[in-house]
């Protein structure tokens, strides 16, 4: 069966939690309640599924998210409009086959019609040159560094300008808004509650 990149569903969360906590030192471990919070606030939360199995996920959010991550807060303090990649995890047996690039292309297609910047961080302690190189080849530039908390790891804060955004802003956002087509629709987050039609 073909690989599908789709919005996360509530029943995926156990598999997502297991993947997250098996990822190793490059991803902060989490628990059910924190993952549930991310599920509720993330603007972008997609999984890669093949043959009924979750092979990876990516979580991202915009500046209005109620999120206390020090790295997210750093971007909030420095930029008005962005999409922040909180975490990406690929199952160990699926690494090295381009799934990370697929996710980054997908989140870019989400971001570039909404904001001028795509942002994230990479750990410098322990440093993973493969991750640093990956982000460099995807067009990210370092815009800062910080230590997470008083004793946490040092991170490199990265941003990538989205050159399509000025065109979208001028032709669509500042005019009549984005077209009402499925691929441009926002994720229906649980925190949004039921939609009321006029």
TrEMBL record:
Domain N-acetyltransferase: 3-163
GO molecular function, one term: acyltransferase activity, transferring groups other than amino-acyl groups
Chain segments annotated as coiled-coil in the UniProt record: none
Superkingdom of origin organism: Bacteria
Protein name: GNAT family N-acetyltransferase
Species in which this protein is naturally found: Luteibacter rhizovicinus DSM 16549
